[in-house]
Amino acid sequence: MTDAEFLADVGFEVVAPHRYFPRMRLELEQGLGWKADVEAALERLLVSAELKQPVGAGASLRA
User: What pTM did the predictor assign?
Assistant: First the structure.
């Protein structure tokens, strides 16, 4: 069993108090906003990191 105090610390709320087994709920809509933000940031990073010229293109091999 997971400690109710830990669950409360990470965002769960008690919806039905009980001495030993409180019923707890996590509203997922609250925590999903960060995922879209991270995906957008990664997309911007990938776009800015695209190579304009492939590595080694234009280089000549001389022995």
Answer: 0.43
